[in-house]
Amino acid sequence: MKKIIVNASYTLGKVTGIGVYSLALIHALEKRFRDTDVDLVYYANGKLFNDLPSLEKFQSLAMPNSFVKSSRDILKKWLPKWLFWLACYFSYNILHKTMNRGLFQETYDLCIEPGVLGILGINGKTRKTLGCVHDIPPCDMEAWRCKPETYTIWEFFIFPQIRTYDQVICFTETVRKDILKTFGFSETKVHVIHHGVRSYRQTSEDLPPNLGEFILVVGKARRKNIKNLIKAFELLPAASKQRFKIVITGVENGPIDRGEDNAIASSDFVIDLGYVSDSLLSALYAHARLLWWGSLAEGFGLPMLEAMHVGCVVLSSDVSCMPEILGDAGIYCNPYNVQDIAKQLERALTDEALRTECIAKGFERVKLFDFEESMRKHIEIVEKMLD
Known about the structure:
Helix content is about 45%, strand content about 15%. The chain has about 375 residues and is an alpha/beta fold. A seven-stranded mixed β-sheet has the order 3-2-1-4-5-6-7, sandwiched between helices. Strands 10-9-8-11-12-13 form a six-stranded parallel β-sheet, with helices on both faces. A hairpin with a 2-residue loop joins strand 2 and strand 3 (about 45-50).
C-alpha cells in the first residue's frame, strides 16, 4: 500500500487562485487512485482526513474569513506594516507547529504541496515531495509590488522548503526560468504544465443589477495594476466614460496600495463586488465587454483562459508570462504607460473588427489549454514518483 498526503489547506475559506487549483488536483487524484492500492490522505489546519467527504465537511465548518480578517484589521492599526506581516507569518508558523505536534505517526511515500505554505512538522515523515510553485515574487520585487518583509518571509520560510522538493511543477516557462535561476535545480526536475479551463466554471447566475456595460477586473492584488487602469479610463473620450464601468472582483491578497484603495473608493465608475462565487464569476466573464489583465507580473493568468472560453476580449500587459498564455488572441499594452493603456483600452472597447478577430482567435487559442490533459500530466508525474 502506497500512501500520499496532500496539503489541502488552500481549499479552506473563500477559495481563489491556488485554492481552486488545489481542489482540481485533489479531484484528479481521487479519480485516479481511489479504490486502488494507493491511500490518499488530506491535511488541513492541523487535521488529517482519509476521504474527500470528510474534508469537504470540514471545509464548510472552517473558521470564516471574516473572523480572521477582523482580527488582522485590529493588529494593523497598532503595528507598522513590516512588523504586521512578519507577525502574521510567525503566528501562522507557531500556530500550525502547535496543532501538528504528534499528528504524523506514519511515513508517507509522497507529499504533494499544491502551494508554498508547507505542512509544518511533517519533516522526516515523507519519502518524496512534489511541490507546485506558482510564482516566485522575489525574482522581480518591483513588478510583484513586494515589500521588504516579503523577501524576508520567502528567504527564511519558503525558499528552504522549495529546496527540499524532489520534483517541481510550475505553470509557465517564465516561472520555470525563475526556479532554475533561483535554486540551481537540474532541468529534468522542473516540469511546466499549463492550466486548463475547468468545466465547473461554466455554471452561471444572474448579474447584480445596474452593471451596464463593463470592464472586468479579476483580483485585487497590487500587481493587478488597477490604479493605472483607472487613470487610463479617465483619459477615454467622454462617450466611452459614460458608456462603460469598471467592475472589480476578488479579495485583498497581501498589502494593498493606499492610493489604489482611494482610487477605487472615490471613482463613481468603479463597482467593487468583492469576493464572488464561481457561478457569478462565470456570468461576469460572459457579459463583460473585456477582461483587464494588465498585471505587472503573474505566474500564469487563468482568467485569460476563462475569458477566451466564453468570447470575452482580453486586454493584457505585454510583460511576464502573459504573451506565453494569450498568444495573438488578445490586445496588449505597456502596463507602466497610462497613455498606452488608454489607447489600447479604447481600441479594445470600440473597434468591432479588432474585437471580432480577438474573439475568434481566443476560441482557437483556449483549445490548447485542456483541463483533462493538464491533470493527466500531473498524475503521470505522481505515478513516476511513487514508482
